[in-house]
Specification:
There is one protein chain. Helices cover 8% and strands 30% of the residues. It is mainly beta. It folds into 2 domains: 1-71, Roll (SH3 type barrels); 82-140. The strands form 2 sheets. The chain has a 5-stranded antiparallel β-sheet with strand order 4-3-2-1-5, with no helix packed on it. A 5-stranded antiparallel β-sheet has the order 9-8-7-6-10, with no helix packed on it. Strand 2 (28-33) and strand 3 form a beta hairpin.
């Protein structure tokens, strides 16, 4: 859940850690709330946006420049890397997941051990935390009878 409680009419910007660069630094106004997403419009008449409220931040005061600090992109993940996923919007459970493809800002994931052929095709890279290989080996060793 977002730490900010927004109401209709609030000025907001998109969180740079959770949204693509094309949305950074643009000020929106909340028009209404749908069942899941906030419906936003631009005060200057540009294209509006539907986005989950957890990906929004309060906009700076009117008349001040919008400055966003965009974090450096994380290093690419190796295919087969084991990761955990954390986000208020993540619905895939707390299990470990395996990276099938890394597309830069998004990755393709499958649950470790399989999930009936299902996978998540576009999980934001910012939601992932890689699991250290030595920690993973130590966790698996008692079950397989092998030690490294």
């Amino acid at each position: 859940m977002s730490e900010h409680e927004f109401v209709i009419g609030d000025r907001v910007i998109c969180d740079p850690a959770q949204t693509p660069p094309r949305l950074h630094g643009v000020v929106y106004v909340i028009d209404r709330f749908g069942p899941v997403n906030a419906i936003l419009s631009r005060p200057d008449g540009g294209q509006g946006l539907r986005i989950h409220p957890s990906a929004l931040l309060p906009a700076p005061a009117a008349g001040t420049a919008v400055v966003t600090n965009v974090p450096l992109p994380p290093p690419p993940l190796d295919l087969g890397s084991v990761v955990t996923v954390a986000s208020p919007r993540w619905t895939g459970g707390t299990d470990l997941h395996v990276v099938l493809a890394d597309h830069g800002d998004t990755v393709k994931l499958v649950r470790l051990g399989g999930n009936g052929g299902r996978y998540w095709p576009k999980v934001p890279r910012a939601w992932l935390t890689p699991v250290a290989a030595d920690a993973l080996s130590a966790a698996v060793a008692p079950r397989t009878g092998t030690a490294r």
